[in-house]
Amino acid sequence: MARRLQAEVGHWAAQHRPAGTDERLAARRARWEEARWQVRHVIASEPNPHGDA
């Protein structure tokens, strides 16, 4: 699921990139940002194993 969402975000970003921006670069940056958001979301939503038990 994560890989598919990253691909979709990259495709969308490539189609909606600003004029003069490289299509591959726009897609790569968007995929990276999506992956980063996914990791941050998982970390924020998981309980801390070292917290108060």
Give an overview of the whole structure.
- With 53 residues, this protein is mainly α.
- The chain contains two helices and no strands.
- Helix 1 (2-15) runs antiparallel to helix 2 (23-45).
Beta-strand portion reads under 5%
Helix content: 55-70%
Major sheet characteristics: none
Shape summary? elongated
Number of helices, where a helix is a run of at least 4 consecutive DSSP H or I residues: 2
Q: What is the typical, i.e. mean, pLDDT?
A: 91
Low-confidence stretches: none
CA-based gyration radius = 15 Å
Euclidean distance between termini CA atoms: 32 Å
- Find the structural class using helix and strand composition: mainly alpha
Number of strands: 0
- Written as H for each helix and E for each strand, in order along the chain, the element string is HH
